[in-house]
Predict the structure.
Amino acid sequence: MTSPVSGIPTIRITPPTGASPTTPGQNADFGAVLRSAVETAVDTGREAETQSMRAITQGGNVTEVATALSRAELTLQTATAVRDRMLQAYQDIMKIQI
């Protein structure tokens, strides 16, 4: 017998307030989008550091620390995957014979 999954809470991930997603009709500067993504990744890592230090020094909330660390880990994994795909695309372009 299976149990219903209605008891599982849902998590909604929203972009930071400073980031504006681009739609297919907009002209986006790749450098600006990349810079924004890197800044967001760094901010996520700093937030995880801050939460960890707060938990160590002031006995902060363990749930908040775990959440911040999970976000930082996911951000790092995403950045690594994007880097790998960009490197693969560059290598594919270099293989094209002119």
